[in-house]
Amino acid sequence: MEKVTIREIARIAEVSPTAVSFVINDKPGVSEQTRKRVKEVIRMMNFTPSVNSRRLFFKKSYNISIVIRQTSSPFDNLFYFEIARGLLTRSKNYGYNIVFTDVSIENGRIMLPDIIMQNDTDGIIFLQDTETAILKEIDKENIPYVVVDAHSTPEGITVVAADYELSSYTAVMHLITNGHRDIAFIGSSFIPEFHMQAFGGYKRALDEINASIPSSWIQTNAVDEVTSYNCMEKIIKSGHIPTAVFCSGDIFAIGAMKCIKDRGLGVPKDVSFTSIDDILLSRYFETKLTTIRIDMPAMGEIAMDLIIKKINGEPAESMIVESDNLVIRDSVRKI
Predict the structure, then answer these.
(1) pTM over 0.90
(2) Is-contact 152 193, C-beta < 8 A?
(3) C-alpha torsion 241→245→250→254, nearest 10
(4) CATH number of the domain at 6-58, out of 1.10.150.130, 1.10.260.40, 3.20.20.80, 3.90.800.10?
(5) Separation of alpha carbons 274 and 210, rounded Å
(6) Where does the pLDDT of residue 155 fall: very low under 50, low under 70, confident under 90, or very high at 90 and above?
(7) d(CA 124, CA 144)
(8) Is 3.40.50.2300 the CATH classification of the domain at 164-294?
């Protein structure tokens, strides 16, 4: 099919190409009746003008800002890379550009990026929980937004989230059904809401079997594979090695498994592991990791659908993605 041109639009609307150009670029010089007729033909022909023309014609920037807090934990990088893939894939369907930026709070002052301050974005997608003060500033700019991977759901805010309490519970129950009762925990208190969910699922599973866990087996200072390695080392030095460890993120499990192997122990021969995320690395590590798959690209795609709805003034309800999809690999043995 040949590409529709301004001349073709003009012929069908029975006006001059100049009149069509005036309409597309929102310039005066044509009557309201003519403007209405040209716009109707444009819609009927599914005509797509150049980016600059579209911006003027539809009064949109065709930019969506993906905002990450400057204080985001470094262990989020691989997780959010997968979400970004979903965002980029879905954005093509809507003809939007994706612009990655960040926001910070300096001396109590919220520093919004220029793309927001200059009103050059139609919508914002926040990755991870964002302070209420920042969201209030965005409300002042009257820009719609969605929060992805939110660990709390304040009223009136559209979020795309996973149920990490359920994820943790499912992962720990897999260890329990394989005979494990001595199960340690490695997680991060960096994001309190996430930690409460992950630890809550871990505790719920252990409470069901009345398991008693020493405090030294509860490690909450992990932020990456190095610090999770150190957490595992502390568990080992406690004098009693658990038969299994649940980690609240794949990157933590990878660091902890490396520690086990560096101590001459085997995974899962001596210690079994489960986790949450299913990042790419978990499938190719030396011992492939049994984990809960969170469909991160789908989270990105859903977020894009929701922000487009909000841009268009349509209702957009929060979504919880599947959170108990257990992927069984090689890191758990039956005892």
Answers:
(1) no
(2) yes
(3) 20
(4) 1.10.260.40
(5) 20
(6) confident
(7) 6
(8) yes
**What DSSP designation does 239 have?**
T
- How many angstroms separate the CA atoms of 158 and 156, rounded? 7
pLDDT (tens digit, 9 = 90+) per residue, 99-117?
Answer: 998 888 888 888 888 888 8
Q: Indicate the length of the chain as a whole number.
A: 335
87 contacts 96 by C-beta, under 8 angstroms: no
Q: How far is CA 317 from CA 98, 155, 173, 310, in A?
A: 22, 11, 31, 10
Cα–Cα nearest to 283, from 78, 126, 99, 93: 78
Give the tokens for residue 272: 């079994």
| CA distance linking residue 183 with residue 45, whole number of Å | 63
What crossing angle do the helices spanning 17-24 and 6-13 adopt, rounded to 10°? 110
- By three-state DSSP, how is residue 266 classified? coil
Torsion of CA 215, 221, 222, 223, to 10 degrees: 160
What would the mean pLDDT of 280-302 be, rounded to a whole number? 94
User: Residue 43 is encoded by which pair of tokens?
Assistant: 């819609």
Tokens of 25: 């670029």
Using DSSP's 3-state secondary structure scheme, residue 120 falls into: coil
Q: Tell the CATH superfamily of the 63-162+296-321 domain.
A: Response regulator (3.40.50.2300)
Q: What are the E-state strand segments in 56-158?
A: 63-69, 97-106, 109-111, 123-127, 145-148
Question: pLDDT at position 77, please?
Answer: 66
